[in-house]
Records
---
Amino acid sequence: MMIIKTTRFGEIEIDENRAIHFSEGLIGFPEDKDYVVMEHKPGSPFMWLQSLTSPGLAFVIMNPFQVYPDYLKEIPSEEADMMKPGKDENVMIFVIVTIPGGKSEQSTVNLMGPVVIAPDEKVGRQVILANSGYNHRYPLSMNKNK
Amino acid sequence: MLVLTRKTDESITIGNQVTISVLEIKGNQVKLGIKAPKDIPINRTELFEKIMSENIKASQAPDDLDLCLEFMDEEEGK
C-alpha cells in the first residue's frame, strides 16, 4: 500500500498495483505520468482519474457507453489500433467529463479524446480520434432525453 | 526553432525512429509522410491543442463537485 496526497480527498491509501502509467502523460499534462482510477461513490457513473504526483490534479471520468451507446462502433482501423495502449487485448475506455463551474447542467464529455487503459499491463494513454467525427464537447445532459 | 529547407521527396529524421518526408508541394499545401513507431502519437497540432485546452478545463472541476454530481446522477438515472 502507498499513501498519496490529494487536495480533494486528503491523504488516501492505495494499492501500488492500481497505479496506471501514462508514458506520455495526458495531453497538456506531460509531467504527470502516473494516475489511479477511483470510484466517486458507490452507484455513481462517475470516477476520478487522480494524479499520483500532483495532489491537485484529478479528472472526472466515466464510461462513454453510458452516454453514447454506439461509441467506437465505426472507427477507422488505425484509430482502433491506437485504442490499445499495450499488448493487452483487454482495455478499459473512459472519457473525461468537463464540468463548468456553477453550470453543471452544461457538462460535456470529451468523446474525441478518450482515455484508454490496459488494466493488466497497467498502462494508459489519451488518444485523439481525429477521423471519427466525435465531439470533444458532447453534452452529457442529452442522455436524459433518451 | 530549428528551420530546415527541404524539397519534394527529401526528408528529415528525428531521433532514431522518426522520419518525415515531403511528398508533394501544391500551392500553399504540403503533403507530408511520417514514419514513426506505433506508440508515438502523431496529430494535427490544432486538434492536439483543442484536446489540451479541454483537458485543462476539465482539470478544474468545481469545488462543489459533489452537488454537481448529484444533479447529474439524477439525470443519469432517468
Note: Helices of chain A lie at 77-82.
---
Amino acid sequence: MAAAEIDVKYVAHLARIALSPEEEQKLGAQLGNILGYIEKLNQADVAGVEPTAHAFPLVNVTRPDETRPSMSNEDALRNAPAKANGLFIVPKIVE
Amino acid sequence: MLNQLTISEFTAKLAKREISARETVQACLDQIGRVDSQVHAFISHDAADALAQADAADKLLANGGSADKPLLGVPIAVKDVLAVKDQPLNCGSKILGKFVSPYDATAIQKLKAAGAIIFGRLNMDEFAMGSSTENSAFGVTRNPWDTARIPGGSSGGSAAAVAADECIASLGTDTGGSIRQPAALCGVVGMKPSYGRISRYGLVAFASSLDQIGPFTKTVRDTATLLEAMSGIDPLDSTSMPQPVPHYASLLEGGVKGLKLGLPKEYMIGGLDPEVKQAVDVAVKHLEKLGAEIVEVSLPHTDYAVATYYIIATAEASANLARFDGVRYCARVNGKDPIEMYGLTRGAGFGPEVKRRVILGTYVLSSGYYDAYYLRAQKVRTLIRNDFLKAFEKVDAIVTPTTPTAAFKIGEKSDDPLQMYLSDIFTISCNLAGICGLSLPCGFTKSPKLPIGLQLLGKPFGEETILRIAHTYEQSTDWHKERPALK
C-alpha cells in the first residue's frame, strides 16, 4: 500500500461524481490523511486468515421461481424526474 | 404529561381507558411545537396524519379489536432513512428531492400491524454517514441537554426526539454505532440488534453487511418490546436470519447473579474522558454488587477497528449509493448524456461527507488497490470477529463505555473527518463482528450536565442476556428518570 496520493479526479470519474477544482483539492488532502491512518492495517498479521464478507454468511437463500405481485408501474414511476408512456426518460445514450 | 410516558405505561393506561391515543399524540405534537425549534430533531412531521392514525387506534380500541395489537396507539417517530408509504424519504440529503416512498419497510409494516402510530421524519447525518448529525442537508440537530452540543449521529434526531419527549419511542439505524452513540450522548436507551435480526428491506442501504435498524426508548423494557415487534426472518431480505424471536420483554427479570461480564483491557485507554471512565467504573462495581462477576478480557485487534470499518463501510457505500443517478428518482441535473447527468446530479446532490466516503470506497475497490485495502480489511474483520467469539467463550456479555467523551460542541470536530471517525472506537467493532449491543444511561458529567452511556455487547442473537443485564442495572438506578431542562 503506497502512502496515499489518490488521483481524486480519476476516482471521482469512476464514482460518477462531478467535483469542483476546490473540492478536488480539499478531498485530496483529507483522503490522503485518512489513507495515512489506514496504513496501520499493514501491521496486522493476516496470514492464512479468510476474509469475512458477512458476519453470518448464509448460502443459497432462494425462493421458488414463481411470478408474484410486485410494485405497480405507476408506483415505480412515481418519483421519476422525467417519464412518458410508462417509461423513465433519460438523455440520449446512443447517437 | 402524556408524551413523557413509556410504552409500558402508555399501553397500561390505554387499556384501562384512562387516556386516549389522540390525547397522547397531541401531547407529543404540543411538545414538538414547544421544543423542536431549539432541538430540530424533526425534518418534518404530518400532524394531521398522526392524529388520524390516533383516532383510528382509539376507534379500534373502542370496538374491541385491539387484542393482537400490543403497540396500539404508541406514537413512534422514524429516522429519515426508513421507507414509510406515502411519506417523504430523503435520508438527510438533497439528492432525493421530493421523493415520496411507494412502500413500507418491513420493520415499519410490523410496527403498523402491531398498532403503532408511525409519524415524522427524524433528522440524521446524510445517508447515515456521520457521528454528529452535522452532515444533514436539513440543518443540525441539537442535544436537548445542551443545545450548543451535538446529539450524536447518525441517528441524532431519533435520540434527541426521545430525550426531549417529542415522541414515546423512535427508530434509528446503526452501521458503526449510529444508534448506540447518540443514545449515550442524549441519555436514552438505544440498541443495535445482531446482524440479520431485523429485516433491512425498506432501509436505504449504507453498508449492507453492517446496517441494522433498532429502537430508541426511555427504558430497557420498551426496547425489548420494540425489538420483539420488529424481529424475524423476512423473505424480502435474504440476509435476515431464521432464528426464532423470543418474547424479549418477558425475559428481563432474573438479575445478573452468576453472569460473567467481560471488561476489555484495550478499551480503558488514554483518550477516554476521566468523568466517563469514572461513571463506567462505578457502574461496573454496581453490577458486581448486584451479583455479576467481572472478568478481564482481551480484544487484541481493537486498534484496527476504525481503519477496517472505514474501508469496508465506504466500499459498500460506494456500491449502494451508485443508484442515486437521476434516472429513476433524484433531483436530476441534466447533462448532454447520461454519464454527464450522473456526475452533475451526484455532484450537486451529495454533501461533502458522502462524497468523501463514496470516493474513498471507490478507490479501495478499484483495480490495483482492491487486494491491498478491501481484501486485507475483510481479513482483519475476521480477526476482530474472532476476538469477540473467543471472549464470549469466557463471558456472557462485554461491558464498555459507549463513547470516549460526552457530547462535544457543534462544529468542534467537523473540520477534521479523521477525528470524528476516531470517536466511534467503542461502537464500531460490534457491527464488524455482527454481534448485538446496546447503550443505556449510567451517569452524567458534572458541568455541564451531559449524559454518559454504558455499553453492553452480547453474543450473536444474545439480545436477551444484554437486555436482562441492562434492565437489572436500570431498575436499581435512577438515571432513566432524568430529563433535560428544555424550556
Note: Strands of chain A lie at 83-84, 87-88.
---
Amino acid sequence: MDSVTEKTKEMRLQEALRETLRYEMARDPRVFVMGEDVALFGGAYGVTRGLMQEFGESRVRDTPISEAALVGLAVGAAINGMRPVVEIQFCDLLPLCMDQLVTHAARYHYMTGGRISVPIVIRNKFGTRPGGGPSHSSCNHGAFIPFPGLKIICPTTPADAKGLLLSAIRDPNPVLCFESHHLYGVKGAVPEGDYTVPIGKAALRRQGKDLTIVTCGGMVLKVDAAAEKLREKGVETEIIDLRSLAPIDTETILASVGKTKRAMIVDEGPVIGGLTAEIAAIIQENLFSDLKAPVIRVGAAPIPPPHSGPLVEAMVPGVARIEAEALRVIGA
Amino acid sequence: MLDPAKKKEMLRTMIQVRAFEEKLNDLYQKQVMFGSPHSYRGQEAIAAGVCAALEPSDLIASYHRGTGHLVAKGADLYKLLCECIGRRDGYSKGRGGKMHMGDLSFGFLGNTGTVGATVPFATGAALAAKIRGGREVAVSFMGDGAMNQGVVHEAMNMAGLWKLPVVYIVENNLYAMTVSVEKSVAVKQLADRAAAYGFEGKAIDGNDAELVYEETRRAADKARRGDGPTLLECLTYRWDGHFGGDPGTGYRKREEIEEWKRRDPIRRLKEKLSAENRLTEAEFERISAAVYAELDEIAAKAEASPLPAAEVNIDDVFAR
C-alpha cells in the first residue's frame, strides 16, 4: 500500500514533481537532473525551477539538444553508481532515444545476467492539444509497453506525482514517467515527507456497480466528468486510474470488472495496438464468460496529432463521446 | 622508456588476446558456438596497450569486436568463453553472448551489437565520476564505423563541453564490415573530428603497443587532471573477415591483407624486446606455449560445462 504520512500540503502537480526532486536530491547525493533548459530556465514546464540555484550546476545540468545521447549518458552514469533523472520535453522526442532506452537501458539487467542494473528516470510530457501538432503533442505512451525491462508511470494527482516519482527514482530499473500536459496545473493535497506510491498499483477513482472504465493520464478528468453525467442517468461507473502502464495492475482491473461485468477502456493515445488493446485482451482472457457486453475501446482516431483546434477535438475522445460509448456498453 | 617487465606483460596479453580469438574461431568451426566471432586478430596492440595504461578502477566500454578488450582488462577467461558459447556459467548466463556483457568487478561497463551505442555509456560513466569527484577515467573503445553514428557525435560534444574524464579509442581498421573508410567518411583522418568537439585528436600507429600505451597513459593522466577528453585514432587492420562466415577477401585485396600481416603487432613488440636483449626466442616460445595451454584447459572445461536450462526467467528482467 501507499506509505502514509500525516501532514499534507496543497499544490499543483508540477510543484509536487519539483518538491519530490528537491526532497530526493537533498537526501541522496547520487540523484542528479539533466535535460534541455532544466537549469537556468527551470524546465519547459517549470518542474525543475530553483533546483539549479539550490543544488548547483553540477547536479542540475542544462544539456545540448541531444536527446539520444542524453539518455545514453544517463545510462552510463547509472551504471557508474548515479541516479540520473532526465527531462525530455515532449514524448514526441522519445523515438530519438529508442536504441539507448529500449535496446539498452531496459535490457541491461537481463542481458548482463543480473550483473548490472540501470536506475534512470526519464520524465517527459505527453498529451494532445491544439497548437502542438504532429511533433509536439503525441500520446505514444502505449508504444513503450511491449519492452520488457522498462517500467512506466503516469501520475494524475499531485499526490501520486510525488509518490510515483519518488518510487521511480529509488527503483533500480529504468522508469519512464509520462506527465500529462493537461494535468501540470491541477491542484491537490500532497503528503509531506517520505511519501511513496508503489509502481504497478492502480487507483480506484470512483466506485460503481454498473460499468468499469479503465483509463490514465489526462483522460481521467474527462472520464470523471462523463461518469458524473452517467450518474444523473442512473449509471454507476467505477473508474480505474492505471497510474502505472508497466507493469499493468491486472489484479485491480479484474476485481473491478468481475464485479461490474462491463468494461470500457479510455485512452488519449491511438486504439490500434496500444494500451487499450492490451487491457481489453487481459479482461476477455480472464472474464469472458462473466461479461455482459463486449469490452469497448475508446481512444484517439488513427491519425497523427493535428494542429488546429477542431481537428484535435475530433481526434481525441471528449466527455460526450465517452458518455455515449458508456451508454452503448450498458445497453441503455 | 617503458619498463621491460611492463612490455613483457603487454606481450603476454597480446598473445592471450590472439589465442582467445583463435580459440573462438575453432569453437565456431566446430559449431560449438552460437553466433559467430568477430575476430580481433591484428588489432591486439590496442587492447593490450590501452588496458596496460589504465588503473584497476578505470572503466572501459566495448563493442561487438570486444573480446580482446575484455581479455586485456582482466576478464575471467572461463566466464568469458562460456558466455561466447552460450553456457550457463558465462558472464551473462548465456543470455548476452559475446556482444552483450558487463561486469564492474573488472571495470567493464558493457558492450553491445549496436555500433556506437556504448560511446554515450562511457561518456556518462565519466560524467558520474566528474559529478562525484571520483578519480576514475572511462575509456570508450569503438571502431571506425561508430564514428558515423549520431549518438557518438552527441556524446563527444558533451564530453568536450564538460571536460569529462574520458578517452575515446577509435580502432580504425579501415573497414566497417565491408565498406572502406574512404567510401564512408568525408574527412581523411577520423582524429580530425575531435577538433569540432573542442578536444585533442591524434592518429597513431595502432600496431605499436608501446606507443598505444604511452599515448593512452598521457590521455588518461590528462583526463584525471580535469583537462578533458582525448580521441586516439589507432590505425590498424583486422586480419580476418568481419565475422566467422566472412573470409574478408571479397572487398579487400590479398596483397593488402598480407602487407598488414607483415606489420604483426605481436612480432613487432617481440622484436623490440629481443633487440633490447630483454627476450630470447626460447622465452617467447615458453610464454606463448603457456598461454595457449592455459586456454586449451579453460576451453575444455567450458565445452564440458552445462548449457542454461530451457526456461524463461521473467523475474530476472528487472533488478530488485
Note: Residues 4-307 of chain B form a domain with the Rossmann fold fold (CATH 3.40.50.970).
